[in-house]
């Protein structure tokens, strides 16, 4: 049977709100997350971390710790090799400091002991001789020529001569004649912005259980990608991939922060040294000090506009720091900054600098939220200057099908205009506001990714279907994958069961990131189903004694393609499965692909806030999210992504930040003072799903996971500026900053 | 480390005095366990007192209420009598932590932890509350105001521990209120806070007042100038502004991760003014 | 360090365990009794993932000593379903997609159960403040609050 490239179809399963298959385990407490798995004879691993922001490690004396009863192994950087590959070396050095501790909380040694108390006691007995060095945590300070040098010689070939010693990369995007563009403008605004680093804030700590004896390893861990964990750990431990099997636990949130390794190589090294299984679970303060924050930034944005609202040119300079190791996130920020606009002249420049902070990890649309915040703030200020409607101005200048994007490609089918139109038509946009309230809006954008994917689909003897895939289910993907398989096979959703497998059971799968899973795993699942359908049609053709091409698949049945094919009763998938052994053996389908055509996603957010004029406290009173999902496979979980991302963005805008003291020590390494939004901070977050099909996916699916964190930053800043009559150019907009601005305005 | 459950107040005092500096009292444990696990403290023994007689009781006494040291926030909030007499103290205690923390945390623990930003303390000081302290030499009473001496420090002698708080009786037309500022709506430590207790005369003017501030100095502040600014007034705008100004003058906060000097000073005045208005309304409704 | 023998009731069953003097109730439940539904998200009472009910009040089990469970009546997420029959909250959390990653879910379910037993018809604001100590980073709370409202309505009708 042949499958049309694009089918305008009436979906039966896709688009419904079915119960997720892992739901019962997760509401009864049975689901096993990273810290929930144990084995007999297991040791407890603990990590000693640098109290200094920057220090040379002169010597580590672990002899007293090793002598403590119950201590089975101590490891330091000396227990690891030095990988040739720079990126792998950075990841290893981030897991265990070599020569220098590069940030407060950087791991310097680790212990495995019979229990947690002994391990904790052993850490105190490890003597580290530090030579404290000058440090730098601020991005602008780090860019300076005379800044303390975090690491020598890390500038790549893009860095112009004469740049500061911490600059590691420079990048540039854009097209058109900026000078001519600005000359056409009636008003050109140039503003500078600063944003602090935020943390993904997943509630589940990093946790792993490692066994590495006789050269063979088993690793259980919470991760967004077991294959990447295997690749990194095997590289760091000097093993072949086949000798290390990695099983992903249920994952308690990641948001990009679990797309690398922190404790896994350390646990493996401790296990190798002790000959025993070793479990490491990070504490919350370790998580804040030594895992995943975002970049912090300093940015200049210049935009010109005509009196009637046409943007004539846009320019942005982004300076990001991503911690103590080279980081290319600024490249994504620079590409995304003006993505929502159709501009004749646009240019973005990006710089990255090293600082004495933890190594940046991906966080939902990495790099994009802050650059788009800066652009969307300036656009809003221009609207205020000329009294223009901010939604009309976005519509007037919106990127659309055929627009040459500021970062190079020409957009195919995109949903920005439809999303803006939906916002304009929504009652929220014209609803009256109360005293001290203001409304802000912002566009958002994310590229979305596809990537390497393997899916295996097996037909069981009773006609039900098992799917094996390799991407951890971070928010309902087992359901959406099962749904797409059921849709394609024409069978009920509950006949399909999807499991996520270990690294030995499927070929390589890229990490669950880039909003890729519903798109790419979905695509591979549909193709795997089609492969199975082809087999089933062939088997039926054989039974009926007709040509394979004369058998079609409809609603879970093989049927003759038409009257000419012959007169046969349709055969159901159950019937075909039942006699598979007589028609050629087990029936399966699989698909392996490096998926392309992910299809970008745009969103528009409307936010109403109320600012207390006496305290500067900001309350979000109404919030609506409009986003293009291509095709919403499971609308509940699409809405969930839109709502969850929005609230993370709200946190970023209002209260979340990394606070360092003058010694470069993190001051708020806990949920008490790293203030993620709580339930009582928020209104309902109304999601409005748009469906502008992505031509790159059989069902039109686009990734939806990341775009939603982008718009809240500017939407809230724009809303605050209208509510309080002041404009901040800095995030977070914590109450002291807002009150100060209001008081100085008088 | 040992976990001890003494059978009497005397035994507890004895353990504490024989192990000065090495033993810590456990009631609600919501501060103690955090400190234990972070390694901030490393006591040799934990002395659990919450099962001792009276620790869980709220009893009427001389027209006021005595609240046992182990009464958690949620139980105080469910007590109609205390709520009617000292609504500001109750609302302050109910602001400590989440619902889960409310199931455990106590006013006494909040006080004895010595935190300058403790929510219940400004309210208790505004209420002119006293604590009863057990110790090797028997019981003594002490004004709540005199218990904290600085960040993390309290005036109790070795072997002493607080067994109850006493919230005194008050005239008919009197009430109190407590407000704090936090960046979120829940789960934060106060950036600035204010407690106001006041009494109204027959004509509706304020005849007595106590105004307190939290988180704007090394310990709770009793701002007498702020009280003076509203006594004899009906809390008209000028009086309220004078009260706020007196609070701003008195505040001597620090810059830290939770707020700036400038912000804390300004907001302390705002909160005192708002709390005074609430207390005024409550008193007037009686 | 001498371990302490504790007799307690968990989800209606009388159980015994031994624990170290400084061990948290959370660790006792997870490591001594094998009840892994309560999670440690922070260890400082700030996230609520370890929420259990103790003598009728919800607590952060990371801020209670195992030794304090002597004679206590504990309820955990493992006790919510009756056999194969989920509690209304559990069922509706699945039906209305009130969980994404699910790590906060056990704590939220326990907290919500106590709320609804005490207040069968809570307002949105009451639900939000009651659950303010249960951090969820995935959902933005919207579907959680709605699911608690739906469960409350169903339980009132039942």
Automatic annotation (TrEMBL), chain A:
This is Xanthine dehydrogenase family protein molybdopterin-binding subunit. It comes from the Bacteria. GO terms for molecular function: iron ion binding; oxidoreductase activity. InterPro entries: Ald_Oxase/Xan_DH_a/b (IPR000674), Ald_Oxase/Xan_DH_a/b_sf (IPR036856), Ald_Oxase/xanthine_DH-like (IPR016208), AldOxase/xan_DH_MoCoBD1 (IPR008274), AldOxase/xan_DH_MoCoBD2 (IPR046867), AldOxase/xan_DH_Mopterin-bd_sf (IPR037165). Pfam families: Ald_Xan_dh_C, MoCoBD_1, MoCoBD_2. Keywords: Molybdenum, Oxidoreductase. Residues 28-134 form the Aldehyde oxidase/xanthine dehydrogenase a/b hammerhead domain. It comes from Roseovarius spongiae.
Automatic annotation (TrEMBL), chain B:
The keyword Metal-binding does not apply. Keywords: FAD, Flavoprotein, Oxidoreductase. GO terms for molecular function: FAD binding; oxidoreductase activity. PROSITE patterns: FAD_PCMH (PS51387). Pfam families: CO_deh_flav_C, FAD_binding_5. Residues 1-172 form the FAD-binding PCMH-type domain. The keyword Flavoprotein applies. This is Xanthine dehydrogenase family protein subunit M.
From TrEMBL, chain C:
The keyword Amino-acid biosynthesis does not apply. Keywords: 2Fe-2S, Iron, Iron-sulfur, Metal-binding, Oxidoreductase. It holds the Pfam family Fer2. PROSITE patterns: 2FE2S_FER_1, 2FE2S_FER_2. GO terms for molecular function: 2 iron, 2 sulfur cluster binding; metal ion binding; oxidoreductase activity. Residues 4-80 form the 2Fe-2S ferredoxin-type domain. This is (2Fe-2S)-binding protein.
């Amino acid at each position: 049977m042949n499958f049309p490239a694009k089918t305008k179809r009436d979906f039966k399963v896709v688009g419904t709100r079915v119960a997720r298959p892992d739901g019962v385990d997760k509401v009864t407490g049975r689901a096993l997350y990273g810290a929930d798995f144990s084995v007999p004879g297991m040791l407890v691993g603990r990590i000693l971390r640098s109290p200094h922001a920057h220090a040379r490690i002169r010597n580590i004396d672990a002899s007293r710790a090793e002598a403590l009863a119950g201590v089975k192994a101590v490891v330091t950087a000396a227990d690891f090799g030095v990988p040739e590959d720079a990126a792998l070396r950075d990841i290893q050095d981030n897991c265990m400091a070599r020569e220098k501790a590069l940030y407060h909380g950087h791991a310097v040694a680790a212990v495995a002991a019979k229990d947690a108390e002994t391990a904790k006691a052993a850490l105190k007995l490890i003597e580290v001789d530090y030579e404290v060095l000058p440090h730098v945590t601020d991005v602008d300070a780090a860019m300076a020529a005379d800044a303390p040098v975090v690491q020598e010689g890390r500038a790549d070939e893009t860095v112009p001569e004469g740049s500061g010693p911490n600059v590691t990369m420079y990048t540039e995007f854009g097209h058109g004649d900026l000078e001519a563009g600005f000359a056409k403008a009636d008003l050109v605004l140039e503003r500078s912005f600063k944003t602090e680093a935020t943390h993904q804030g997943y509630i589940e700590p990093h946790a792993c259980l490692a066994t590495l004896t006789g050269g063979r390893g088993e690793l259980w861990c919470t991760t967004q990608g077991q294959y990447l964990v295997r690749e990194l750990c095997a590289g760091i431990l000097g093993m072949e991939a086949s000798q290390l099997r990695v099983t992903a636990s249920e994952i308690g949130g990641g948001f990009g922060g679990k797309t690398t390794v922190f404790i896994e190589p350390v646990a493996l090294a401790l296990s190798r040294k002790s000959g025993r299984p070793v479990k490491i679970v990070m504490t919350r303060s370790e998580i804040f000090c030594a895992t995943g924050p975002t970049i912090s930034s300093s940015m200049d944005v210049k935009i010109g506009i005509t009196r009637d609202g046409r943007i004539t040119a846009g320019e942005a300079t982004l300076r990001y720091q991503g911690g103590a190791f080279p980081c290319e996130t600024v490249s994504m920020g620079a590409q995304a900054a003006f993505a929502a606009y159709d501009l004749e002249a646009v240019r973005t420049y990006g710089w990255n600098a090293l600082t004495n902070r933890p190594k940046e990890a991906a966080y939902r649309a990495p790099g994009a939220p802050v650059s788009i915040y800066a652009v969307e703030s300036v656009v809003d200020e221009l609207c205020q200057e000329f009294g223009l409607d901010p939604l009309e101005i976005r519509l007037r200048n919106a990127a659309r099908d055929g627009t040459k994007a500021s970062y190079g490609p020409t957009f195919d089918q995109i949903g920005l205009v439809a999303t803006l139109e939906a916002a304009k038509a929504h009652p929220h946009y014209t609803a009256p506001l109360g005293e001290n309230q203001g409304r802000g809006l912002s566009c958002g954008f994310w590229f979305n990714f596809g990537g390497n994917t393997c899916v295996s689909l097996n037909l069981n003897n009773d006609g039900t279907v098992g799917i094996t895939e390799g991407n951890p289910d971070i928010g309902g993907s087992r359901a959406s994958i099962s749904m797409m398989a059921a849709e394609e096979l024409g069978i009920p959703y509950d006949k399909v069961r999807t499991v996520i497998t270990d690294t030995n059971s499927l070929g390589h799968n890229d990490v669950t990131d880039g909003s890729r899973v519903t798109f790419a795993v979905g695509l591979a699942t549909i193709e795997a189903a089609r492969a199975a359908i082809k087999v089933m049609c062939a088997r039926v053709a054989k039974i009926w004694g007709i040509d394979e091409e004369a058998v079609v698949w409809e609603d879970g049945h093989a049927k003759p393609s038409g009257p000419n094919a012959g007169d046969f009763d349709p055969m159901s998938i159950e019937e075909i499965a039942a006699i598979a052994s007589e028609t050629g053996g087990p029936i399966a389908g699989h698909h392996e692909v490096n998926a392309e055509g992910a299809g970008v996603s745009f969103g528009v957010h409307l936010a109403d806030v109320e600012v207390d004029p006496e305290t500067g406290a900001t309350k979000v009173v109404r919030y609506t999210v409009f986003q293009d999902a291509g095709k919403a496979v499971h609308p509940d979980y699409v809405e969930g992504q839109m709502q969850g991302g929005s609230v993370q963005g709200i946190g970023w805008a209002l209260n979340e930040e990394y606070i360092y003291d003058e010694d470069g020590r993190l001051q708020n390494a806990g949920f008490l003072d790293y203030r993620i939004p709580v339930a009582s901070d928020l209104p309902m977050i109304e999601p409005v799903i748009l469906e502008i099909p992505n031509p790159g996916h059989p069902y039109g699916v686009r990734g939806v996971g990341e775009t939603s964190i982008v718009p809240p930053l500017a939407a809230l800043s724009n809303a605050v500026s209208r509510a309080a009559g002041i404009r901040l150019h800095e995030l977070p907009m914590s109450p002291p900053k807002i009150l100060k601005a209001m008081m100085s305005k008088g | 480390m040992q976990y001890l459950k003494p059978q009497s107040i005397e035994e507890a005092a004895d353990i504490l005095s024989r192990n000065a500096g090495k033993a810590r009292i456990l009631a609600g444990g919501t501060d103690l366990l955090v400190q234990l696990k972070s390694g901030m403290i490393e006591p040799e023994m934990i002395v659990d007192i919450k099962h001792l007689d009276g620790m869980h009781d709220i009893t009427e006494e001389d027209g006021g209420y005595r609240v046992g040291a182990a009464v958690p926030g949620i139980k105080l909030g469910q007590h109609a009598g205390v709520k009617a007499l000292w609504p500001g103290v109750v609302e302050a205690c109910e602001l400590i932590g989440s619902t889960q923390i409310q199931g455990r945390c106590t006013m006494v623990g909040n006080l004895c932890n010595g935190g300058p930003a403790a929510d219940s303390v400004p309210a208790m000081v505004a209420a002119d509350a006293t604590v009863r302290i057990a110790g090797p030499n028997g019981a003594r009473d002490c004004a709540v105001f005199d218990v904290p001496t600085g960040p993390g420090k309290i005036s109790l002698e070795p072997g002493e521990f607080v067994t109850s708080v006493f919230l005194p009786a008050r005239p008919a037309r009197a009430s109190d209120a407590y407000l704090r500022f936090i960046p979120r709506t829940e789960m934060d430590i106060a950036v600035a806070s204010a407690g106001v207790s006041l009494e109204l005369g027959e004509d509706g003017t304020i005849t007595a007042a106590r105004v307190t501030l939290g988180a704007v100095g090394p310990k709770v502040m009793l701002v007498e100038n702020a009280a003076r600014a509203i006594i004899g007034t009906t809390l008209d705008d000028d009086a309220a502004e004078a009260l706020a100004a007196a609070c701003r003058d008195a505040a001597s906060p620090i810059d830290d991760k939770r707020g700036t000097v400038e912000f804390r000073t300004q907001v302390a005045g705002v909160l005192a003014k708002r709390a005074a208005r609430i207390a005024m309304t409550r008193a007037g409704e009686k | 360090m001498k371990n302490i023998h504790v007799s307690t009731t968990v989800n209606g069953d009388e159980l015994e365990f031994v624990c170290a003097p400084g061990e948290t109730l959370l660790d006792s439940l997870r490591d001594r009794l094998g009840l892994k539904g309560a999670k440690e998200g922070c260890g400082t009472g700030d996230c609520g993932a370890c929420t259990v009910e103790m003598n009728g009040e919800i607590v952060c089990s990371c801020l209670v000593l195992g030794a304090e469970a002597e004679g206590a009546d504990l309820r955990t997420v493992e006790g919510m379903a009756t056999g194969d029959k989920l509690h209304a909250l559990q069922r509706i959390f699945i039906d209305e997609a009130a969980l994404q990653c699910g790590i906060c879910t056990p704590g939220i379910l326990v907290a919500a159960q106590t709320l609804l037993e005490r207040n069968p018809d809570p307002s949105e604001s009451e639900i939000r403040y009651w659950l303010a100590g249960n951090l969820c980073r995935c959902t933005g709370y919207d579907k959680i609050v709605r699911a608690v409202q739906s469960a409350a309505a169903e339980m009132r009708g039942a």
